[in-house]
Amino acid sequence: MKDQAGIYETLKAKLQNVLPDFEIAYKAEIAYKVLELKQKRRAVILGHAYMEPALYYSVCDFTGDSLELSRRAATTDAEVIVFCGVKFMAETAKVLNPKKTVLLPSLRAGCSLAESIAPKELEAIKARYPGVPVVSYINTYADIKALSDACCTSSNASEVIQAMNAPRVIFLPDAFLAANTAEELDKKISYAKKGAGQTVVFPDADDWEILGWQGSCEVHERFQPEDVKNLRAQFPDVAVLAHPECKPEVTALCDFVGSTSGMARYVAGSSKARFALLTECAMGENVQAANPTKEIVRLCAIRCPHMNAVSLEATLQALQQNRHEIDVPEPTRKRALGAIQRMLEVG
Ligand code: SF4
Questions:
Q1: What is the 206 CA–ligand 1 centroid distance (Å)?
Q2: What residues contact residue 325 under an 8 Å CB cut-off, 6+ apart?
Q3: Beta strands at 200-201 and 189-194: parallel, antiparallel or unpaired
Q4: How far is the CA of 77 from the centre of ligand 1 (A)?
Q5: Whose CA is nearest to atom 5 of ligand 1?
Q6: Superfamily for domain range 220-303
Q7: Distance, CA 304 to ligand 1 centroid (Å)?
Q8: 110, 228, 233, 271: least buried by Cβ within 10 Å?
Q9: If you take atom 3 of ligand 1, which residue's CA is the nearest one?
Q10: CATH superfamily of the domain spanning 4-110+307-321
Q11: Centroid of ligand 1 to alpha carbon of 138 (angstroms)
């Protein structure tokens, strides 16, 4: 393990164009304490692409998007998993590792998509359309996964829906991911939505092939077509990349649409010099640090408040105080596991 000076040098080499020096020095001190405790507790730290750069580049054993981290969580032999991401991700790790301690550094790390649908609402949809398979986005809580036939991420939504081998699929909760996926698969989409209380309002016509739900990501829903037009007017050579949780009228104007890992790979492999990422803004910093010869246009003041709650400081407290331990009731876990495994099998 590196000493504090070594961590500072590593962070400085990576982040000198991203963070001021005093912040790098301060974060290196905390990262050193996190690494010491990680070793002592035989822990593994998984870091989502939306984590702050100092955390992302100092203490994580594995980084990536939800799918990559789910795969890592499925194979780790560590005794403790610290999930530097949000609650639904830590729940997924617990579902895959019931005997291990899974820690989420902040209880404020929720998600507007995961909050958008309740089990009673999904039960009502299933009762209305019996036998229609349910694919739930990984950005759902375990009780929704437990009612689903399969999960998917933004990397593999189309593949999982096709793998259902059914004329109609219920795909929730993100309305925009569903619309972008329906477009890609050339399928007709309609939506169910929240009614009063936990009732559901169903579409008038039953001629859909994909039934979506009107949930959205509070970060990605904020990007507008004008943002893309303004970017192109100001930077004619820019490549604009969007996450599929953005509105279809936004993704239609972009050069590439894909998951966080897909966007990172696109930047690394492209011969272009300038990029704008329509996604959570910490990811722009992390991609900038990984590609110092390229320019990531700082469009962004859109920081996810849930991801922002997980800092290096919170990660240190999680290891020091064994908090916040994630638990999933066994019947729910078993059913959710089936849906997650189906996704992992599809690839
Ligand atoms: S960026 Fe959006 S989808 Fe991701 S955790 Fe935040 S609210 Fe949820």
A1: 31
A2: 101, 102, 103
A3: antiparallel
A4: 28
A5: 111
A6: NadA-like (3.40.50.10800)
A7: 6
A8: 271
A9: 217
A10: NadA-like (3.40.50.10800)
A11: 11
Please indicate whether the domains covering 4-110+307-321 and 220-303 agree at the CATH topology level.
yes
Give the ligand 1 atom nearest the CA of 50. 1
Total-model pTM: 0.94
| Ligand 1 centroid from CA 219, angstroms | 6
Minimum-distance ligand 1 atom for the alpha carbon of 174: 3
SS3 of residue 34 by DSSP: helix
Q: How many angstroms does the Cα of residue 3 sit away from the middle of ligand 1? A: 34
Domain ranges for the chain: 4-110+307-321, 113-216, 220-303
* CA of residue 41 to ligand 1 center, whole Å: 29
Q: Which residues line ligand 1 (CB under 6 A)?
A: 86, 111-113, 139, 217-219, 280, 304, 306-307
Closest CA to 299 of 229, 217, 216: 229
Per-residue pLDDT of the chain (347 residues; tens, 9 = 90+): 889 999 999 999 999 988 999 999 999 999 999 999 999 999 999 999 999 999 999 999 999 888 788 788 888 889 999 999 999 999 999 999 999 999 999 999 999 999 999 999 999 999 999 999 999 999 999 999 999 999 999 989 999 999 999 999 999 999 999 999 999 999 999 999 999 887 999 999 999 999 999 999 999 999 999 999 999 999 999 999 999 999 999 999 999 999 999 999 999 999 999 999 999 999 999 999 999 999 999 766 689 999 999 999 999 999 999 999 999 999 999 999 999 999 988 86
- Cα dihedral 137/314/78/154 (nearest 10): 20
Residue nearest to atom 8 of ligand 1 (CA): 111
CA–CA distances in Å: residue 61 to residues 13, 47, 78, 217, 286: 19, 8, 11, 27, 16
Q: Which two tokens stand for residue 222?
A: 């904020």
3-state secondary structure of 239: strand
Residue with tokens 């990811």: 283
Closest residue (by CA) to atom 2 of ligand 1? 217
Are 53 and 32 within 8 A, CB to CB?
no
Whether CATH 2.160.10.10 fits 113-216: no
